[in-house]
Write a structure and sequence with these properties.
2 copies of one chain form a homodimer. By secondary structure, chain A is of the alpha/beta class. Helices cover about 25% and strands about 25% of the residues of chain A.
Chain lengths: ~375, ~375
């Protein structure tokens, strides 16, 4: 092991006691920090931007219909105050001289496979269903696995409930939970709070304890997607059936009967859940579609088979849960899909809710779906 | 379960086959995507920004000493090409009309407790020591635990090596790995790639298989820190000794002798490692300090005890590894600490390397440290 010799010159610099810099500061002093967003006690929210040379600042937030333009102070700090807002977790961006980007002062950032956005959390008076509470907590495990279906080393997240490690002889049901086109396999944890929602429901005795497996839903390079959605969905299905499920069943104590296997997802992942879940009623008896990108049953053989024999499909499925917000741009597609199910006589739960194509809706859908899963008998 | 009735009017909208929107598009068509950064085959890198109304764009990157100003094209797209760059993972931000923020077009973002930065990865011809390779992979586990020392529900990350789950009777040594002031407990994984570095070293047979525990190093609100560093470091120590280590030893198969316990960290976490590791030679026999914020041994009783009895300290410690870059703003403090060790005759390894206060340095330090840990005999 090479040790650099201490030179006499260096030693000469030594002072006997308290010799180390208390706040080493060869760097230029930073500008005073800007707090943005600031949530006031009355749940109004102030956004800020230090931008003395900027000419225009706007808030991009489709959940906010009021004033969006910031005002410039004499100190070069722009501000906008809105609300009061309902307690929730919101995403937003700034428009700075026409450029859409995050709030540069806010460390809370939603990342994924598309450009980032900022995160605003308006706390509730008591911890919300998605907050960290002083309850027993499960764990989230991040794995890489070799996917034969795609030839890739891929990543997934797995939630195990609080009692899992201490119950070596118990097997659990599994929910496969799929993300949207802008996210990755960490999205349902980081922004969806799936693990905390489940911890809290379990603590309240409101749900069956289960694992939640969150795989990665992109396989093709994003640039290829406009031509390649169908190809990607085929690969996602193959990866899930031939690699993800075997990996989970080899490495976790899970039940393997279709009554103990659910699949649900949002947007792109909702479409994948329909394709995979409804296309394989021998594997999945619980299916959830959140603001789903439901597409082209005519071109999907497995979905056609599911639709072609309603009696058989009804006998297999325990729950087909479909939710969409009134302001979601995918509402019409979902209404058409639901109408098709109605016309065919295929049982389902249809929830037309407030909200648009956004995470506040999907957290609530998961919170509503989890207590319905893996119950005895048909929901 | 409430099911919204399908109305006749809605059913009337049905077309018999292929009825679902192929690309539901009530949203305005998005602008064509901008690729930024683009890494060219010769490892030059082009940064871009769509900003027709912007007056000035600059690159903030202390690893780049050349041109930093973007040029505006007639299409309103600003560009800057630099390099070629050495293969590595770099952090950068933009200055857009004087506002420091991420590259809005780049989904790769480093997050933490301070404002985000963008991530540029320049791939090497063959996978680097921090890349995902087709080798056996360990897993990273995310836990919440009740910290009695702080009264908080806190989070930590734990890496287990590839063979861990399959070796139920084996106990492993543990490295406690601490992050810097801008990061959180996910930093050593997300940006440090600690799990992948360990996977690759294990696959090459170059290191002893060990767990890596990555706790969260902030306890006080960030705004209080300028007055509260000493208080925070006391709490971090108390939390680690009284909550983190007991949690790990209760939930993972780890060895509990000090020869099997290491602590290392970067910057703030390097200072904490010195405080906790050198202050408790009964618990830790391996200590690593990466660009450490080493401060005030005169005011730290445990560190004073360590320095006061060099013979005892030398007999206990297996390795005290200290690294700092030539361009690091903490270099002088580290040199003074090393000189103090020299003056006292306390054995250590001092690595004065290229680099500044940044992640490319710390990934390499971890890659250099891991093979030295938990070996038989003194390194």
């Amino acid at each position: 092991m090479k040790t650099t010799p201490i030179t006499a010159a260096l030693l000469g610099n030594l002072v006997v006691a308290g010799l180390l810099a208390q706040q080493p500061a060869r760097r230029p002093p930073p500008e005073p920090p800007i707090q943005s967003p600031e949530v006031h006690p009355d749940r109004r929210v102030t956004f800020r931007l230090r931008g003395p040379n900027v000419r225009e600042v706007k808030l991009n937030a489709n959940w906010h219909s009021g004033e969006k333009a910031f005002l410039r102070g004499e100190d070069g700090i722009w501000t906008l105050t809105i609300g009061p807002l309902e307690p929730d977790i919101y995403n937003y961006t700034y428009s700075i001289d026409g450029v859409t980007t995050i709030d540069p002062h806010n460390p809370a950032v939603k990342t994924g496979v598309r450009p980032a956005s900022s995160v605003l959390e308006v706390p509730a008076p008591a911890p919300a269903f998605y907050d960290v509470r002083a309850v027993p907590h499960g764990a989230v495990h991040i794995h890489h696995y070799q996917s034969k279906a795609t030839g890739q080393t891929r990543r997934l997240h797995v939630y195990t409930p609080p009692g899992y490690a201490g119950a070596p002889n118990r097997r659990y049901p599994v929910l496969y939970l799929l993300h949207g086109a802008g996210d990755d396999d960490s999205g349902w944890m980081h922004i969806g709070r799936a693990h905390l929602i489940m911890d809290n429901l379990i603590a309240e005795g409101k749900t069956v304890e289960a694992l939640i497996v969150m795989p990665f839903g992109h396989i093709l390079p994003l640039g290829d997607l406009r031509a390649g959605w169908e190809r990607q969905n085929q690969l996602v299905e193959k990866d899930l059936l031939e690699d993800v499920i075997p990996f989970i069943e080899a490495n976790y104590r899970v039940r393997r009967d279709p009554d103990s296997r659910a699949i649900a997802g949002l947007s792109m992942g909702g479409g994948q859940s329909a394709r995979i879940g409804l296309g394989h009623p021998d594997l999945f008896h619980w299916v959830g579609m959140f603001s789903a990108a439901v597409r082209e049953p005519a071109s999907n053989e497995a979905l056609q088979r599911f639709l072609a024999d309603p009696a058989k499909s009804n006998a297999a499925l325990r729950l087909l849960w479909i939710g969409c917000g009134k302001d979601d741009f995918l509402l019409e597609a979902n209404q058409q899909f639901v109408a098709l199910l109605e016309a065919k006589g295929i049982r389902h739960t249809w929830r037309l809710t407030e909200g648009d194509h956004s995470w506040p809706v999907w957290r609530r859908y998961l919170h509503e779906l989890l207590p319905l899963l893996f119950r005895q008998g048909r929901t």
